[in-house]
Amino acid sequence: MLETLAKGGPVMIPIGLCSVLALAIVIERLWYFWKTRYEASEVVEPLREPLKQRKYMEALQLARQLPPQIASYVGAGIAVADKGCDDMQLHFQVAGRDSLLKMERGLPILSVVTTVAPLLGLLGTVTGIISSFNVLSALQGIEGPSSLAAGIAEALITTAAGLSIAIPSAALYEWFSRIVDKRMQDMHRIGAELMDIVAETRGGQE
Questions:
Q1: pLDDT value of position 122
Q2: At 204, is the pLDDT very low, low, confident or very high (cuts 50, 70, 90)?
Q3: How far is residue 82's CA from residue 183's CA, in Å, rounded to a whole number?
Q4: Is residue 2 part of a domain?
Q5: Domain count, the chain
Q6: How far apart are CA 122 and CA 96, in angstroms?
Q7: Degrees (nearest 5) of the Cα angle 27, 33, 61?
């Protein structure tokens, strides 16, 4: 396998770096999303009664027991629940932006890999074809077809390698993006429900 990849020429070096980078990001994001997973339907209910009774410190303690990502978001709003829904909304927005940055960490790089990897494969294709043409231009010195085959092999191997990295990277990037979108929707819905509960306890004045 390594011998075959080596036939791809020097372009295989940046392609290999792309593969390592993409793999590192994918593993790190999988671990992050698994570690911070939660059921949106189970977040609000434990907080409902303490908020209705205006026991905000109790609600805040319960919020801190949630998974890290949603805990910081919910806690940011509950921490100012005594000041009303306007302050809660502002803190939810700030916490939501912070959560979005954490969830999207590494994804822009993964997106770049999906673009760069096939382009590097195309570059390898071009250099391989150039090598083949150089051989053809010096036909008199060829002892066999091996020199010509080397250029063709370089072209095909780099193209295959680039696509092999870009295709799964693009699929995983799309999957991670959908996870981020769903979690942001869940967080906004949770924030809205918590503000509704607080507004009801304050006589609908917020």
A1: 86
A2: very low
A3: 26
A4: no
A5: 1
A6: 40
A7: 140
